[in-house]
Design a protein that fits this description.
The chain is an alpha+beta fold. The chain contains 7 helices and 16 strands. It is about 30% helix and about 45% strand.
């Protein structure tokens, strides 16, 4: 090797260089293969993730579409078919809203809590979570979340809804802390029959035939002004036990025939007991009515009430009542005792406007204390009402009432046993300018039918009232 010629050495150097380049090229090719394999793996992984993302998005999008249509129940049921999606933020958000709106607030709160853990600054999610806490009765946490939303300065419509929740929370807080409030109200209106008089002066009466009613007994229409004030307080004295009291005064002044001006003063006090889903209340009340600035009638009553919350959307109630009615002057012949029993049902609906349906029925006996059985009667009453909030700051309601009065004995003047049927329909609409100040419009249409024409009348009342509440 040492004696090799220069030519031989050059040949060996060329061969070594070729082998070196081959080894380098081999390494480059191997490295390129590795990169290609890695790139292919990454591409496949990204495709898989994209497919998985589309799978996550599809149920969430479908739930959102159902919510947009107002079908929260169907949205919730669809979400329940995809338990594997729980934990996906988008799915959790829409499933949480659907669960709350369909009456499953517990599941909805859990889903929204998971979402907010990832996106704590999402104001809409916090608003929905606050609503869920409210439905579950977790007032402190609901207030905290609502307050966080208000700090973000949401639109006025959202602020108005939150203020309503705050009012409801404040009312419920009376179960564990002292709360008090007061209000002032002033209204103007028109009453087509301030005296409950007959429509025509000429009527036909049993055993008397055609008679002419004196002017004071024929219906009189008049505009009026009305002022009302009230205050209430609730003070808890033990877990679930609270004392309550209220005071109300109402004055109605007519433009003409001031002899029909009225004043009402009422006071109520009692105790309530709340345990889980049941609320029991017992109270005593006193009310005095003045007509033409003279005492007309006093009512002293005892009431017992039971309310049971069946679920997040439904409640039933029942009550017992006893009262004594004392009339002044020549009307004392109408003194009586009233005892009654009743039941009610309330149902909230999920959907636009948040409708609330209320149904009630009652039976009472009014026994005359002066031996006048013709003034004693049995009363059956039915009422149905529905309320809604069709837009922020707006509240509307409509109701219908029926009452049947069966008197116990013949009227001594007409030798006929009186039987009355009373029908009424009422409509109200209110707008809250602020949390404290609101304006309300009221309409009442009523008719009393009787087998004795002297007691038949029709009445329509329209009024606009402004109310300020001290909260």
């Amino acid at each position: 090797m040492l004696n090799e010629s220069p030519k031989t050495r050059r040949r060996f150097a060329q061969l070594a260089s070729i082998r070196l380049r081959q080894r380098r090229l081999g390494r480059m090719i191997s490295t390129k293969k590795i990169y290609m394999r890695a790139l292919r793996g990454i591409t496949l992984a990204l495709c898989a993730l994209a497919s998985a993302g589309s799978l996550f998005a599809a149920p969430a999008d479908d739930i959102k579409a159902l919510l947009d249509k107002g079908d929260a129940k169907a949205a919730y049921e669809l979400g329940k078919k995809h338990p594997d999606q729980l934990g996906s933020p988008v799915f959790d958000f829409y499933f949480g809203v659907a669960a709350i709106d369909s009456g499953r607030a517990g599941e909805g709160v859990l889903a929204l809590e998971r979402y907010i853990a990832n996106f704590p600054d999402n104001v809409q999610a916090r608003l929905e979570l606050a609503r869920g806490y409210f439905i579950l009765g977790e007032d402190a946490r609901a207030r905290e979340e609502f307050s966080a939303v208000l700090k973000a300065q949401p639109p006025a419509a959202v602020v108005a809804n939150i203020e309503r929740y705050f009012d409801a929370i404040r009312a419920r807080e009376s179960a564990y802390r002292t709360t008090a409030g007061a209000f002032l109200e002033f209204g103007l209106g028109y009453d087509s029959n301030i005296n409950g008089g007959v429509s025509s002066a000429n009527i036909i009466l049993p055993n008397l035939g055609l008679v002419t009613v004196v002017p004071a007994g024929v219906k009189i229409g008049s505009s009026f002004a009305q002022a009302t004030a009230g205050a209430q307080i609730t003070h808890p004295i033990a877990p679930g036990v609270a004392l309550f009291g209220s005071l109300n005064a109402d004055f109605k002044i007519h433009n003409i025939h001031q002899e029909f001006d009225q004043g009402n003063l009422g006071i109520t006090g009692g105790v309530s007991y709340l345990r889980e889903n049941d609320l029991l209340r017992a109270g005593i009340s006193f009310n005095t009515l003045d007509v033409d600035y003279n005492r007309f009638r006093d009512v002293t009553g005892l009431t017992g009430e039971w309310i049971r919350q069946l679920d997040e959307l439904q409640a039933v109630s029942g009550f017992l009542q006893y009262a004594t009615l004392d009339y002044a002057g020549a009307n004392d012949v109408r003194d009586s005792r009233l005892s009654g029993i009743g039941a009610g049902y309330r149902r909230a609906f999920i959907g636009p406007g948040r409708p609330l349906l209320s149904l009630s029925a009652s039976y009472a006996q009014e026994d005359n204390r002066r031996g006048r059985d013709d003034l004693a009667r049995d009363l059956w009453s039915l009422r149905a009402a529905v309320g809604a909030t069709p837009a922020p700051r707006w509240a509307v309601s409509a109701g219908a009432t029926f009452q049947l009065s069966d008197y116990d004995a013949q009227d001594p003047l007409f030798t006929t046993t009186r039987r009355d049927k009373y029908y009424a329909a009422d409509v109200t609409a209110s707008y809250a300018f602020t949390r404290n100040f609101s304006v309300r419009g009221e309409l009442l249409f009523s008719r009393n039918e009787s087998n004795i024409a002297l007691y038949e009348y029709k009445r329509e009342v329209a009024a606009v009232k402004a109310r300020y509440e001290f909260k």
